[in-house]
């Protein structure tokens, strides 16, 4: 009986640990930027393009609306659904 209580207690603590860890991970992955974080994120995002001014203009516009900028200098837009799904009138991507 004593071994069963120990196993139940261990299972309970393991479940609580996993639940806490998954909540922290989810909160981190969906964390929103502050508006003040947009300029440095967009500066890096646009660093590899030869069209820096338009890239920065649209990146800052998208960041201020979505509070998210994908990692890297290109691609990875699936990380920021709002940023990824905002389209121009012609249906092309609005955000760089």
TrEMBL record:
<protein>
    <recommendedName>
        <fullName>Protein RSI-1</fullName>
    </recommendedName>
</protein>
<dbReference type="InterPro" id="IPR003854">
    <property type="entry name" value="GASA"/>
</dbReference>
<comment type="similarity">
    <text>Belongs to the GASA family.</text>
</comment>
<dbReference type="Pfam" id="PF02704">
    <property type="entry name" value="GASA"/>
</dbReference>
<keyword id="KW-0732">Signal</keyword>
<feature type="signal peptide">
    <location>
        <begin position="1"/>
        <end position="27"/>
    </location>
</feature>
